[in-house]
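Bit of a strange request maybe. I'm writing a small parser for structure token strings and I need a real example to test against, not something I typed by hand. Could someone generate the tokens for this chain?
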Amino acid sequence: MISVENQENQPELEARRQQTRTIVAKKVFLDYFQKTLGIVSVATQKTGIERTTVYLWRRTDPKFRNRMDETEADVLQSMEDALKLAVLKGSASSVHFWLSRRHPDYKISKCNHVTTIKNPYENLTENEKLEKLKNLVAHYGMILIRNPQISTNGQ
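Reply from user aminoacidic:
Good idea to test on real output. This should exercise your parser:
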């Protein structure tokens, strides 16, 4: 039988249980959010937590918001690092993407017309191009370049 004292504490105990469930749910969500590279819809599917609940937590809980922001920043850094690796491996589309976002001469116009991209190296002499390449190697380290004009078997 429940005593009068226990009956009076019942709402308080239930509130503590709910608070504990919420803390656990937030942690589980944040773990999946990180594992799914910051995709809210996938993390909510995996955890069974409603998107509206997640966004409510984000608005009302600064620690939760900070953890989500940190995860998003980590994912962004990882994606940028992966893009840089693809650029170093010579992926033409990655090089184009990188330059179009970072170099003013390669920026893509926001208009709906075709924009010609200026090649800043087209008017350089071979020696000037070689000097630029040496500067890149000095800055980034070793860069592997395939030159079809140079034979690999010593001929």
